[in-house]
Amino acid sequence: MITFNERYKNNLILIKTFEFAKKIIEYAELLNTKRRFVLSNQLLRTGTSIGANVKEAQNGESKKDFIHKMKIAIKEG
After folding, report:
1. CA contacts within 13 A on the Cβ side of 17
2. Exposed e or buried b for every residue in 29-58, given b needs 16+ CB within 10 A?
């Protein structure tokens, strides 16, 4: 079971992207059972990178860095 870090429990954007990533992982696993490996791998990489970029933005070194990293996350979507 995938769980969410308590440190970020009140951060709505992290919660939403984390839940999205969990759904992507579940769907990618379903695609694997149907032998759709290429599609599954691509979906898994792109679908989970959004949340990873948003989480990285939370630790930005400055406001400008935070905004830059969030823009990268938006491009992934």
Report:
1. 23
2. eebeeeeeeeebeebbeebbbbbebbbebe
Q: Which domains does the chain have, with CATH numbers?
A: 11-76 (1.20.1440.60)
Q: Are 74 and 54 in contact (CB under 8 A)?
A: no
What is the token pair recorded at 38?
């290429």
pTM score of the predicted model: 0.75
Identify residue 62 by its one-letter amino acid code: S
Q: Is 26 helix (H, G, I), strand (E, B) or coil?
A: helix
Ramachandran quadrant class, 4 (left: phi over 0; alpha: psi -120 to 50; beta: rest): beta
Question: How far is residue 22's CA from residue 2's CA, in Å, rounded to a whole number?
Answer: 8
For residue 27, what pLDDT is reported?
Answer: 95
